[in-house]
Structure formats: C-alpha cells, structure tokens
Design brief:
CATH superfamily of the largest domain: ATP-grasp fold, B domain
Shape: globular
Number of domains: 3
Strand order of the largest sheet: 10-9-8-11-12
Number of helices: 10
Helix content: 25-40%
CATH topology of the largest domain: D-amino Acid Aminotransferase, Chain A, domain 1
CATH class of the largest domain: Alpha Beta
Number of strands: 12
Length: 307
C-alpha cells in the first residue's frame, strides 16, 4: 500500500552535505516504489513541520548530532510517527563512543583500550603510547579524528585550537593496525563482510567515505571464513546489545600481518549508515541480492515507534 513518507535530510550537523546526498537518493528510490514523498530539509522547526504534513512514515536520512543521537528519534516518538533505523536509546548509546564500547565489551565484542578525557588534557603529552587515535566522543564520518604515529613526540596541537568544533570530550584509543572491515545488519540478519580499501588516504576518512574514487569496496571481503563469521557474530551481538533495529553497520580492524589468527577489534556501530552512491550498506545489501530500491523499501516497511 502506498504511503506518505517524509524523508528527513540536511539538518545542521557537520554531516549536512552527506545527509542531503543520502536523502535525495532515498527519496528518489521511495518515489520509484510508488510512495508519496515529502522532502524535508530539517531545521529547528521540524516538529511543527511534521505535525503539519502528517506523514505515515519518517525516513530518517539525517547524520551526526541531532539526527542519529536520539534527538530526532525522541521528537518522532512524541509525534507518534513511525520512523526508520534505531530508536531513542540505541541511537544515543551508539553515538557515544565510550558508552557504546562499554556495552559492546559486556556483550563479548572485542574492543581496543581507550581513555576518555578533555581535549586540553590530551594535548600536552601522550596519555597512551603511540600509535593511537584521538576521536571526538560523539561525532560521525571521521570528523575530528587524529592519528598519532610512533614517531610523533607530542600529541597533535590542533587540540588546543580555540575553534575546535567537535566538542571538548575526546577518546584516546590504541591504534589497531590492519584492514578496514565492516558488516551490515538488516533486521537481525548479519549480511556479508566488506573490506574498505581507501585510495590515497592513510585511513578511512571523510574523503574516503564520500568522494568518488575515495575508496573501493570488496564484497564479500577476502578474509578467512572463520574471521568473516566472527565479524558477523560480533556485528549482530553489538546490534542487539545496543537495542538497534532496522539497518546498522559495525566497523572493525583486522590485523593479519602475522597470520590468519590476527587481532580483530570492533570500532563502533553506526545506526544511520550513509545511503549515498559511494556508501557501504547499499553495496553490502546488493551482494546479498537486495537492490537499492529493495533495501529502501524494506526500511520504509520496517519503520516503527517504540510504543
């Protein structure tokens, strides 16, 4: 049955451009499936606008703070509009890297050692032995991520910047050598594992994720079957432990420099995976036999409220 779907996109986080791209692709796909679509560039008046247009479903194509941290989810719950992706608690939990790691570890998922502190306390001297990674504790799309190499005598001095835009709390996490692997979960089913190969970048940064040619995806990843199974098991465990629903994506590092039994570390779960032409989840779903339109249509049908 045809539905009126409001596609929420844009917003006011650092990830606005990605969200607009995701939203357009998703809105086009939803229209191709015969649904009526209202494209909503989200502002502070989003609750009033949603109350005016009264959609049957909200397709959440927002990224970053406000869009995937439980905030817009709370508004949609209050308005009782069924929406895609995870609910309030899972969204807020997954967005906060420190708390997500605690929950994942308790569920038996391997994580790297880390410390969480004020950015100014991470700036004067190394708080972990290099190499390590500094991440804003609640940002997405690799914004603000800094890699500290073995040969660096002190932490990045960007941490002192007066115009640092990513919040004052950062996570300092042991750097895990190895390959970038990811796995999507769709309705409590773990799909194929994908390897991300950045082109000309030291790690899977913003440009690798969203610029054409920034990376290429190998699906299924060319890893031992037992490693792929572990990644699928850990992805599903994290998805369930956080209370995710719909589609999520877990990211990993796999260090196989010294053999197949190398270190496998879970990095994070993304409750609002990108849906652009270069995004991972559409590629992973396609390998499982789901076209982009099938994937988006399934997400529309899967939309719900907590109550």
């Amino acid at each position: 049955m045809a539905k009126h779907v409001a596609v929420l996109m844009g917003g006011f986080s650092s990830e606005r451009p990605v969200s607009l791209s995701s939203g357009k692709a998703c809105a086009d796909a939803i229209e191709s499936l015969g649904h009526r679509v209202t494209r909503l560039d989200v502002g502070r008046d989003v609750a009033e606008r949603l109350a005016e247009i009264t959609p049957d479903v909200a397709f959440n194509a927002l990224h970053g703070p406000f869009g995937e941290d439980g905030t817009i989810q709370g508004i949609l719950e209050y308005l009782q509009i069924p929406y895609t992706h995870s609910g309030v608690l899972a969204s807020a939990l997954a967005m906060h890297k420190e708390r997500a790691k605690i929950v994942a570890k308790a569920a038996g998922v391997p994580v790297a050692e880390a410390r969480v502190l004020h950015r100014l306390d991470a700036a004067p001297a190394h708080v972990l032995s290099p190499p390590y990674v500094i991440k804003p504790v609640a940002e997405g799309s690799s914004f603000g991520v800094l890699i500290v190499r073995e040969d660096q005598s002190k932490p990045p001095q960007e941490l002192y910047s007066n115009d640092w835009p990513y919040g004052d709390t950062v996570m300092v996490e042991r750097y895990v050598h190895g390959r970038e692997l990811t796995c999507a979960v769709m309705g409590n089913v773990a799909l194929d594992v994908c390897e991300i190969v950045p082109e000309g970048h030291a790690f899977y940064d913003y440009d690798s994720k969203y610029a054409p040619g920034g990376s290429h995806h190998v699906v299924p990843a060319e890893v031992p079957k037992k490693v792929a199974r572990r990644i699928q098991e850990y992805s599903l465990a994290a998805h369930k432990a956080m209370g995710c629903r719909g589609v999520s994506r877990s990211d990993f590092r796999y260090d196989d420099r010294f053999g197949e039994g190398g270190e496998l570390i879970w990095l994070e779960v993304n409750t609002q995976p990108g849906m652009t032409s270069t995004s991972l989840v559409p590629d992973i779903a396609r390998a499982a036999g789901h076209s982009f339109e099938d994937l988006i249509g399934w997400m529309v049908e899967d939309a719900s409220c907590a109550r």
